[in-house]
Amino acid sequence: MTTEQNTTLDELRETIVRYEWDQFQRTNNEGGRAACQGNWPVFHQMRLAQFLTWERPLLTSYAADLDEADRVGRNLVTEKYGRMMASTAPAEYAANIEPYIPKLDADRAARQERVIAQQVAWAADFRRRYPKLGEAMRVLTTAEDTPTATSFETYLRGELGTYSPATFDLYEAMIRERAGADPQRNITEETLLNTVRLGGFSGLDEAEAAQRSV
């Protein structure tokens, strides 16, 4: 994957999204291929919206994670969904997934939980202010997981668990910096703003109003 300094941020983000899409195409789902695996426009919009909130060092580190995964035969997208099953299908996870994916040590798991708690709080705040857009999101907390519905919290935990130590360090620093800003920079709000702009809206208020009229 091209990550040289002369690669623009837009090019780097697009390359990462395409790389993830290729791994997503190689992800096997119980019951056959999922409908979302054929929906490139939505996948592109959702993933690019997230990566637009990242700066070059984090993007470059994650691109290196994807390259290394390819080199050693890992699929980070498959692994992300597998990690989510610790909540949504715990028996299958324990038998068929946990033994075959890298184990996180206690310190890394605790650090991830602090990041997750901050992001869940931001997501809850966003949902209070934009309830219609919030309704279109995943359910919020792991306590709301079902075998067919994965929450924002569980999805985030699955994704963070795939990051290398270097990438997680940078991601954690980004969240800490935004939480310490005055005012705080809500990364959920920034991601959703990117999402609706990529969908053709001028901003969150216009997108919220459009949801009300549906």
Care to describe what's here?
This protein starts with 8 loop residues before the first helix and ends with a helix. It is globular. The chain has one domain. By secondary structure, it is mainly α. Helix 1 packs across helix 2. The protein is built from eleven helices and no strands.
Task: Tell me the major beta sheet.
Answer: none
What share of residues is helical? Answer: 55-70%
Compressed to H and E, one letter per element, the order equals: HHHHHHHHHHH
Shape: globular
Strand content: under 5%
Give the overall average pLDDT.
93
N→C terminal distance: 41 Å
Total E-strand runs: 0
The Cα radius of gyration reads 17 Å
Instruction: Note poorly predicted spans.
Output: none
Kindly give the count of domains.
1
Q: What structural class results from the helix and strand content?
A: mainly alpha
Total count of helical runs of at least 4 residues: 11
